[in-house]
Amino acid sequence: MAKTSIRFLSWRCRSFALGRSRRLNMQENALAPYRVPFFNRLARKVLRPIFRGLFHLLSSVCIRGLENVPKSGAYLVAINHISLFEAPFIVAFWPSELEAMGAVEVWRRKGQNILARLYYGIQVHRGQYDRQVMEQALAILASGRPLLIAPEGGRTHQPGLRRAYPGVAYLVERSGVPVVPVGIVGTTDDFLQRALRLERPKLEMNIGKPLRLPPILAKGEARRQARQRNADLVMLAIAALLPPEYRGIYAEFSLPAEEGIS
User: Are 227 and 153 in contact (CB under 8 A)?
Assistant: First the structure.
């Protein structure tokens, strides 16, 4: 009996030590500074002007609200997400280099995977909570860089906003950074076909003023609900930058006055 107890205690000690070691490793990884490899930094210098030229050639580009873009520091750029064209569009025309999050499928899809690997970014498994992804995003913000995010979590394939995931609110809660809402119009799935027919479809980027979301002090279920409300605040700000047919569920969505944007 005594030997069994000793073996059990020894096993518990090893388990505790192993668990603590893993937690410390996670913390060290989370605190590791974010760096973009030199090759990718160089690739961005080439890709951004190329895409600006292509978009100007194939479409009629209209950008409003550039004065709302922070001059420096970390912030989130939150966009509506209809198709695969929003990310290259906003990355090409944003005044500074944006870090980006994208579905892991982008890194596997022929054609897109080359561009994704050249530009560099965070790979996200859609519909899944991934602590490592969130820590990577927080490391980007901690490094003072702006981060592009689509709160809807995936493409809608047609105009119309979907309910946001609370991830954007979680990042703000942890980092304290402002959110710059951006409404993009014209990036429908048929954009490329129309552009190749020389129709020069119009692309609009409407940039709103930076938002400071209400602090979250609640715990448990109330905390989860508060995060969802903050995510909805971001989407309402995006909806205000879009025409009515693009607003989806946020066309008539409202929140109590005390949950407003400051």
Answer: no
